[in-house]
């Protein structure tokens, strides 16, 4: 099943690469102003890593010598290019995933796959989490034992809050999105954006992902 799922994601990435090749460049650069034109690529940063979308065939590769993007990262970039609405803007209205437009149906799976994994992975590891945020250029926030704002994309900042476990309570985590997130990307992509963020933090912290339904693409 896992193999089949991966090949479907690969197929989807190829379809998006074709769609990208049909997109009007000026329109795209207007809708996603953070894109830059550099040596045959349109470049973009996703959680601090720089990727290039090839002007030749629409494929996505890493441009900072880091590991190549996985299908989740590629689809986050492609859907941003496909769904960003012109004139979208940051609202400074922070909400949990379930309160984003049209997010309710995905909320139960999101909790198991994302916030529960975030909480379980960093339980007892507040120090490593804080260091990972600092490495990603995060901006410290006063709430939580650890609270930071980091950018998934320039136009999609996320706020992560973490309360470590103690004698009485399990660790608890939450991720807030600006309400504009669904103007820039598909609501389901908010789930996979959180997914990439948690994986990146765990990778920097050198911790294995934990949680009931933890999945790798």
Describe this structure in words.
The chain is of the alpha+beta class and 217 residues long. It has 2 domains: 82 residues, no CATH class; 112 residues. It contains 7 helices and 9 strands; from the N terminus they run ααββββαβααββββαα. A hairpin with a 5-residue loop joins strand 6 and strand 7. The mean pLDDT is 94.
Summarize the structure.
The protein is 41% helix and 21% strand.
Stretches with pLDDT under 50, minimum 5 residues = none
Strand content: 15-25%
Please give the largest β-sheet: 5 strands, antiparallel
Q: Which class do the helix and strand fractions yield?
A: alpha+beta
What's the topology here?
Elements lengths: L1 H21 L2 H7 L4 E3 L2 E6 L2 E6 L5 E3 L8 H13 L10 E3 L10 H16 L3 H10 L3 E2 L5 E8 L2 E8 L8 E7 L2 H4 L2 H19 L12
Antiparallel strand pairs: 1-2, 2-3, 3-4, 5-9, 6-7, 7-8, 8-9
Keywords:
9 strands, alpha+beta, globular, 217 residues, 7 helices, 41% helix
